[in-house]
Amino acid sequence: MFTTKTFLGALLVMTVGVTAIPVALADTVALNPDHPDRHVVVRGDTLWGISARFLRDPWKWPEVWQINPDIQNPHRIYPGDVVFLTMKDGQPVLQVQPGPAHPRSSERLPEELLAESSSSEETVRTPALPVVRLSPQVRVAGIEAAIPTIPMDIIAPFLLRARVVTQEEMNHAPYVVSLEEGRVSSGMGQKAYVRNLADNVGTQFGVFHQTVAYRNPGAKKEDVLGYEALQVADARVERFGDPATIMLTASYRETLLGDRLLPVGLDEVSPFLLPRAYDRATPGKIIAVVDGVSRIGQYQVVALNLGANDGVEPGHVFVINQSGTLVRDTIQPVRNGEAVMLPEERAGLLIVFRSFARVSYALIVKAEKEIRLYDAVVAP
C-alpha cells in the first residue's frame, strides 16, 4: 500500500542551506513570459506545475530555488507555503515562505505527525459543586503531505503494480498451476497452487499477469525489449511443497492459471523526482501508451524504448518530436509524385518516473501538438 509514510520515507536526500544551490547556475534559465510574482501552494499542486508557472523550462527549477532556513529539503513544499520570485545578482531566484502546515523542525515534530494539545476531563464531585480537573494529553493528527513532483494519482498504478520483466524472469518464476475447487479465476480469500516455488525465498509475493510485449518500431516478433507484468494480487505462502499452497490476501484483478509469483516491495520509488535534462544524445521512441490509444495527450503514461542501459533514470526530461509525415511533391513536373519526408516538429515534454533495463515509463507533462505512437524523444 502506497501510504504517506512511503512517500516521505522515499524522499530524495538533499539537505541544503540558503546558498547550497549556486545561483550562478541560473544564467541559462529563462522565465515564463507570463510568470506571477508569487504563488500560494494548494492541495493538488505539483513541483513541476509550480515551476512551469515561473520558468520556461520547468526541469531547470533546481538551479533557481533558494531554500528558506525553515525548509530542510527543496522537495518538502506543503499546501499553504508561498513560492515567490526575486532577483539576485541579476538572476531569477525562487524562494519559499513556509505556511502554517509546514513542519518547522524535524527535531520538534515528526515528519508525518503533528502533536496537538487537547484535554481530557476527570470529574470529581463534592457535596457542594462538581470540580473538573483538566489534565493535558497529546493527540496525534495528520498534517498536509509534501507535494510531489508530478501527479501521483496518475502514476501510482505504475509505481505499485506494474513492472517490466524479461521472458527469462517470467519463465523461471513460480507459476499458478491450479486454483481452489478447479476455478478458472480466483480472488481475495481463495487459495491457489503454485509450482517452482523454493522454500527459502520468503512467504510474501505478488501475483503477476504478463500482458504487453514492448518492441522497437518494425522489430521482429522475437525481438522483445521486455514484457509488462501487472500485479493482480497479493499472496502469502501457507504451505511449501510441489505444489505449494498460497492464499490470495488482496486482489486487484482476477488471478488466472499461469500467472507468476514475483517478489514485491524491493524497489521503493520516490514521488519526489529531481527533474533534469537527459544528458545523452541517444534518441528514443514512444513505443506504447496506456489503454492502447494511438494519439496521446497531457498526463498520459507512455513507455519508451530507452532504459537504464541507456542511462535513463527517474526524473530525466525529454522533448517529444512529432514524427515527420510523408508527402508527395506535386509542384515540379520533373519530380511529380516524389516522396518527401517532412522534418520532425516539437510536440511536448515528458518526464521519466520509472526505469527498467531497456524500457522506461514516463508521464506526458506538456502537449504542444498532437503526440502519436512512435514519436521521437530526445534530450532537451
Molecular structure report:
With 380 residues, the chain is mainly beta. It folds into 4 domains: 4-97, no CATH class; 113-142, no CATH class; 152-262, no CATH class; 276-378, FlgT, C-terminal domain (Thrombin, subunit H, Beta Barrel). The protein is built from 4 helices and 26 strands. It has helices at residues 4-9, 47-54, 152-160, 167-172, and strands at residues 38-40, 65-66, 82-88, 91-97, 113-125, 130-142, 162-165, 175-179, 185-186, 191-195, 204-214, 226-239, 244-251, 255-256, 260-262, 276-277, 284-289, 295-296, 301-304, 316-322, 326-329, 338-341, 345-355, 360-367, 371-372, 376-378. Strands 7, 8, 10, 11, 12, 13 and 15 form a 7-stranded antiparallel β-sheet that branches. β12 (226-239) and β13 (244-251) form a beta hairpin. It is flat, with a radius of gyration of 27 Å. Mean pLDDT is 78; it is low at 1-27, 105-127 and 135-143.
Short description:
Helices cover 8% and strands 40% of the residues.
SSE run? HEHEEEEEHEHEEEEEEEEEEEEEEEEEEE
What share of residues are in beta strands? 35-45%
In the residues, how many domains can be counted?
4
Silhouette? flat
Kindly report the average pLDDT value.
78
- Biggest sheet record: 7 strands, antiparallel
Gyration radius, in Å: 27 Å
Number of helical regions: 4
Distance between the termini: 35 Å
* Count of DSSP strands: 26
Low-confidence stretches: 1-27, 105-127, 135-143
Helix content: under 10%
Q: Could you say which structural class the secondary elements and strand pairing correspond to?
A: mainly beta
